[in-house]
User: What shape does this take?
Amino acid sequence: MSTDTQLQFVETPHPARTPPDQIATSIVNPVFGRVFTDHMVTIKWTDRLGWHDARVEPRRPFQIDPACSVLHYAQEIFEGMKAYRSVGGEILLFRPLENARRFRASAARMSMAELPEALFLQAVEALVRTDRNWVPGGDGSLYLRPFMFASESFLGVRASSEYVFCVIACPVGPYFKAGKTAVNVWVSDQYTRAAPGGTGAAKCGGNYAASLIAQTEASAKGCDQVVFLDAAEHRWIEELGGMNVFFVMDDGSLLTPPLSGTILPGITRASIIELSKRDGIAVSEVPYVFDAWRTDAGSGRVKEAFACGTAAVVTAIGQVRHAGGEFTIGHGDEGEVTRHIRTLLTGIQRGKIADPFGWAHRVK
Ligand SMILES: *Cc1c(COP(=O)(O)O)cnc(C)c1O
Assistant: This one.
């Protein structure tokens, strides 16, 4: 079995790469997740060979058997990260080893093969290098989607003995409508995202499958995102459909729900905590009851609230709708603290301001 943490990638360039002028038009305001680059990276794993057959090749459909186990038992995990073009023209990743670590942790929870961190990074860098012309400048970025699925053809219920790891990429603009300064959220009173002992802390497709009905309900209520409460008591705020949540209190401190095992440990979340602590801003990672949020928004104790994640970056929450009514956070648009954190974080990600923790990773 190969225990190599580095593999030789076989590179097959696309026979008809997208011409530069066509790339230039397709990376202007693309719809999130619809435009893809020319290439993909794949690595295979089998219990006999370990990690092998690493390739950079033209993006193409997979051929899978109808009995492919991911189609039946949903052994699938993914990551979300971005490559940025700095003003100096360099291509930067943001804390990519944190994604590699989380990917391993997700794999372990889902009984899947664990891709070594170095190989994860090698794969992501290989794709970014090959499709570097697709990394937009300005406010855009190249969204990278590493993922892995169980590929054994077998209907028995057990962990697969074969996996395919893959990375694809798409140029993206803002996740929410451009120019939108705050999003509305719907607090789901019926559905939960994750329960204690479940897979809430793993970045797996199954969590999303279970959350889509609540997201659909949110859209029907005129909201952009859903807020999930805890599964046991239905009182404690956990996170949004695909983003973590922060509250800005009137004493200037931040509050965010703790990593209890039922929420996704966001790298954006962790980075905001570290940056705030460096700047002397207190951050409490404590449970927060939905009723308190409503009362505190009314009394002014909560001045701002924002969602955060790689895709959404830092986005203010303006209106909160729930079964019993609705309320507004602050003035219903992006507050001062939210704007400051967004500017700080995006500045570091794009190499515009000093990077105090060495988070930006240059792709050579
Ligand atoms: C990916 C994800 C996040 C955000 O994580 P980042 O590392 O900050 O991108 C938050 N919540 C859920 C459910 C997620 O899937």
Notes: Residues 80, 203, 239, 242-244, 264, 266-269, 309-310 surround pyridoxal-5'-phosphate (CB under 6 Å). The helical segments are 20-26, 70-73, 96-109, 117-130, 205-220, 267-278, 290-299, 336-349.
